[in-house]
């Protein structure tokens, strides 16, 4: 097992991720082999496998790191799910989806499905963390919070993804104005921690 804190390990993983992202732009996920990634990263296949189980594990990490980087600090530190936090999440999710589809050849249905599921899960986790930081309404348990976070994340992700194909796709202000009331009204007492 490799030491994940070792600077050489971190640098090698960075080379692997950069090679993979470059190949995604040019080749498409299904056509990429471990040999391709290793050659592009100037490592051998054994080194790749010391860091990642397969290209799916690499895709998972690349997706997670890119999404985390796009979440604004205000959202990461939020103590309550306010309208401002909702707006920031809508915009960050939309920006991530646009960047992803612009930078990757999306000729792989399996890749799109994996990335979509990963982003929905991360969005749900981000929202659940915000809900759990606030004062929970009477009778709200962790299970209910997770359900509310799943519904909220699905609404945000679904709208942001759908927005890729509408005529006004550059008008993210319209997207926010459509989605925010739907999400905030649906949350009721969960949004500000009101009891």
From TrEMBL:
<feature type="domain" description="HTH tetR-type">
    <location>
        <begin position="10"/>
        <end position="70"/>
    </location>
</feature>
<dbReference type="InterPro" id="IPR009057">
    <property type="entry name" value="Homeodomain-like_sf"/>
</dbReference>
<dbReference type="InterPro" id="IPR001647">
    <property type="entry name" value="HTH_TetR"/>
</dbReference>
<dbReference type="GO" id="GO:0003677">
    <property type="term" value="F:DNA binding"/>
</dbReference>
<dbReference type="Pfam" id="PF00440">
    <property type="entry name" value="TetR_N"/>
</dbReference>
<protein>
    <submittedName>
        <fullName>TetR/AcrR family transcriptional regulator</fullName>
    </submittedName>
</protein>
<dbReference type="InterPro" id="IPR023772">
    <property type="entry name" value="DNA-bd_HTH_TetR-type_CS"/>
</dbReference>
<feature type="DNA-binding region" description="H-T-H motif">
    <location>
        <begin position="33"/>
        <end position="52"/>
    </location>
</feature>
<keyword id="KW-0238">DNA-binding</keyword>
<dbReference type="InterPro" id="IPR050624">
    <property type="entry name" value="HTH-type_Tx_Regulator"/>
</dbReference>
